Amino acid sequence: MNSKEGRGEEGSDSSDALTIGFLPRLLVRVIDVRPEEMRALGWSWLYIFSVLFSYYILRPIRDEMGVAGGVENLQWLFTGTLLGMLVINPPFAALVARLPRVKFIAVSYRFFLANLLLFALLLHVATAEQNIWIGRLFFIWLSVFNLFVVSIFWAMMVDVFDAEQGKRLFGFIAAGATLGGIVGSILTASLARQVAPTYLLLISALLLEAAVFCVARLAKLSDALHQSPTAQFEERPIGGSAFSGLSHALSSSYLINVSGFILLFAITSTFLYFQQAEIAKQSFIDRGARTAFFARVDLWVNILTLGAQLFLTGRVLRWFGVAVTLAALPLLSIVGFGALALAPTITVLVVYQVARRASNFAFARPTREVLFTVVPREDKYKAKSFIDTVVYRLGDQVGAWSYAGLRMFGLGMNGIAIVAVPISLLWLLNGLWLGRRQQLLETGAAPRPMPAPAVR
């Protein structure tokens, strides 16, 4: 055991004892957590709970603002989101290169926190007409915020835990995200008609500061978790170039295929998102009712996801491996889009959307993060951030403009669903290749990807 843990310093104070209390004994057996992992697992869980609680307060507000600004304009908002990702990635990579892990994460989160306070002020003083344009800007900003804060979290997870630990623990950690989403959705659904968005934004900002506190606690436990006196290197600057995330992501066949998996996921998700927006606009006139509807959809997705993450994710990964688990969501998408092509009804769409999102959060997302446990440390933050944000939003962009183009050619919901089936089949093959490659890299049967020389 690490000497710090033996001395009873940072790793064993009263606040960490409270963290252990998050895990009932039965749950400890269910998720197969080891004693030396419990404190790090608890703070990781609280960290992502705070981040997703913050985001799900804001998500229904964003979706309502997107509908209010015109469903026909959504593709332009997705374009703005991609541009935002391209602008923010180099400064983030520069922070990663120059600052220790705790500091660059704190700076990133507090930057978004300051943005939230500014939006709260603008919404408070703006006129109704100005609110439309503020809403469009907020839609773009939150779409950038969401991917960045979650990507940073998972980058820290694949830095703190190895592949074997990830397969056992990432499902339970993801359950913290789901519970945060449930609580955030309930809060917004309950208060959307009575409370101005300004006050909800302030609550969200406080939760981001809570996440920064969790990062500091988790970082102090990293060396104890690794049981190595050399683990403190993790709090030294990583170094490299501000553009190495891009260069590394494009120079590794493994990372290129990870990008392909995320790109295809985003394209198909955007198709469903646009269909949901059209249905909501037709079904609800009142803005508060639309916001509450989006929150209720989020709530049901998160409730279904939570049980799977707590009791199934780890087991499925151990039983079937990374390849099969990654392939499950593309397979579901083939079936779901096929069902929409045969019966393009609201009921089929909603059932498929809920099942798809729950499957993504419960199985695909935790498994996708295991893919990054076998890449160099610099790529865990820089290349991962580029892939999770720019590549993801590029997929949104392709999906948004493809959807608009297909509609221009007269395709309805069933026609777009037919187009999505072969896309999902390609995605399925990509997931199977990635899972097998990850296993080879983890076991040492294939050489791990080496970072390309930094461009200085």
Tell me about this structure.
With 456 residues, this protein is mostly helical. It has a single domain, classed as MFS general substrate transporter like domains (Growth Hormone, Chain: A). The protein contains 16 helices and no strands. It is globular.
Quick recap of the structure?
The protein contains 16 helices and no strands. The protein is mainly α and 456 residues long.
Write a concise keyword list for the protein shown above.
single chain; 456 residues; mainly alpha; Growth Hormone, Chain: A; 16 helices; globular; disordered N terminus; disordered C terminus
Which structural category do the helix and sheet elements fall into? mainly alpha
Biggest β-sheet description = none
Distance between the termini: 40 Å
CATH class: Mainly Alpha
Number of strands: 0
Helical amount among residues, as a percent range? over 70%
Fraction of residues in β-strands: under 5%
* CATH topology label: Growth Hormone, Chain: A
CATH-derived architecture: Up-down Bundle
Approximate shape: globular
Rg measurement, Å: 21 Å
- Supply the number of helical segments: 16
The CATH superfamily is known as MFS general substrate transporter like domains
Oligomer: single chain
SSE order, as H and E? Answer: HHHHHHHHHHHHHHHH
Query: Could you list the spans in which at least 5 consecutive residues all have pLDDT below 50?
Result: 1-23, 451-456
Average pLDDT reading: 81
Number of domains: 1
